[in-house]
Amino acid sequence: MTTHPLPARPRPKQPDGTARTDKSKAKRRPRRRSRYAFTIPALIFLAAFSLFPLLQLVRMSFSDVTSATLNGAWPFVGLANYVAGFESGVTGAALTRTALFVVVVTVVGMVMGLLAAIALRTRGHWSNALLAVMVFAWALPPVVNGSVWKFLLADDGLVNTIARATGVTETALPFLYDQYWALGAVAFVNSWAVIPFNALVFRAALLNIEPEVFEAVALDGASRWQEVRHIMIPSVRPTMLVLLVLTIVYGFRSFDFIYVMTFGGPGDATNTLPFLGYLQAFSRFQFGLGASTSVVAVLVVLVLAVLYARSIHREESE
Amino acid sequence: MHSTRILRHHRRVTAVGAALAATLALSACGGAGGESAEEGGEDQTVTVWHYFSADNQVALMDEYAKKFEATNEGVTVENVYVPYDQMNSKVVSAAGAQTGPDVVVFNGAEWGVLSQAGALAPLDEQWSSFADADQFPDSVLHGTEEEMLAVQGYVNLLGLWYNADILKEIGVEPPTTIEELEAAMAAAKDAGHEGITLSALPQSQGEWQAYPWLTSQGFDYSDPNADDLAAGLAMANSWVEEGYLSKEATTWDQTVPFQQFTAGGVAFAENGNWQMGAAEADANFEYGVVPLPLGESGKVYLGGEGIGIGASADSPTLAWEYLTETYLDAEGQLLAVEKVGSIPAREDAAQDPAVVDNPLLAPFSATLAELGANYPDSVIPVESVADVQTSMGQAWSAAVGGQQSPEEAAAGIVEKLQSLIGQ
User: Which of A292, A299, B278, B380 is the most exposed place for a label (fewest CB within 10 A)?
Assistant: First the structure.
């Protein structure tokens, strides 16, 4: 295939038919500046509700803040909160748990999201109905979702009842109270909640593939798996990169499901970084320590945010 | 009633109290704006923050609202539910923003957290002119040496609820010792029932429920000993291993295990007097209560909700009137007996037939007299209470859930306790 250079864009004409001059460009500058003025409300909003709290969080993490000092001056303590968190071992342990949690959420969320998108790629009553149900599940507040799953995974809940009835197990599976199962179960529920979003995004990408492409590979005798392997996955790869970063960030900042389903237990088995920060700040009232844990989490999310921005940029440039 | 003399127990925080006096005085000035509004004769609202979610407890709050509105024309009581584990942080945050409730109903043991943040207005002036003040024992008054900050309208504590039908079926009497309890749980299990329900949530509710069993094995906050603590944790762990207690307890707050009990099929429940209404409404079997069988060293916390006036209350005078006509009123306290099964703090209400003739309340009264202990333990410094409760709740949860062996859990927490308590 050959490419042809685009013809040079004609210089815009003035209403009187003459070419626009540099003088007219100069006249446009104020308009461009006024265009930027429209971003001011959003910038003020961001500064007030994102930047300022973030700066306060960082300041708090370097201060000795408890319920006694929260509403007064915050004594500066340098890195003491960070050192205390890592020396006690709780921050390191929470980081490890968070990493495991994120791996489960990302793998299950991405794979199941893609599979759901492939299954629901065609338009029809069934796929529309299923999509509606998925959007409903996705839109439910995590507290509601978590409570429902807590019932489902209880000893006498639906999942264990089915497991016993089908002979999978004789005793209840310890979904929420075994230290290993609990982290996996909450991570799975977190993944379940993100599958609809991922499926919708993947589906949108799949719908961009021209039908003729599928007709062509069908004529060539391609199997369903070959369609997936050689047509669909390459087509959604740019979307996949963006979605991967978003899913990792989602998994990393997950808090609600842990709060509702295990409250960090048994013991501290499901204390991920966000939940540890919550416990330190709002249960032990060591706001400085909690802030330092949260800053560690924010730093990781920031790295992911940079990756996200770069992948978006790359996708746009493609 | 055991007198915990809480005011005297907090002499060590005199310096903190002095510093807070200035803060609270400023806060009280902030509330003065509300008083002028009262004088205007406009419709007023008393905002009450509470963390009750059980039907009978919510019904009591509604009754209190109705009672107060009936005698105060133009006044509306707005009961606002705040989840238990968010209450303190919300009140503390609100205090920083010079806002918050007129009345706050909180875990009485955690008054120190609110006090340190200057979130409660001092009640000394109102209390000194309160005609019925002498009806209340010191144990239900909370505050520093300088200031009284909260009061309890009633006392809540734990007992051993039993399913009389199951005990009859297995041919045992309600237990009076731990050995009898374990034998009864074993017999219940053999008969196809569950042994006991309790909460092992890794937070303060877990610590509240763990305390009786841990102290029964010799554990004492005044001298935290890893062996004694391990023995208490091992006892609970053995109940799990024997199949008397489900590990699911690690995910239950105090409401869920009682729902499990009232659903039937469980011989015992470690739960509180406030569940009386829930038992009456939901249990389709004969039931009763006995004091927790804890041996010589075992103790039971004397808990209950602390009631205070917010430091930034819009109308502190009206808020105080609300307290005197509901929580601190004899009739109001008997409403709590009727609706919730609480044990009144007032001496006259505690002698009412509704209390003394109630067979379900009698075991709690006996526990209060024989096993009652300060909540929190008076050796724990105010600033360490929340940390101690959360840490101990996690250790209890870890032992019940099997995340750690009792010895590991005990060793891990004792060093921290020594540091927090300053032993």
Answer: A299
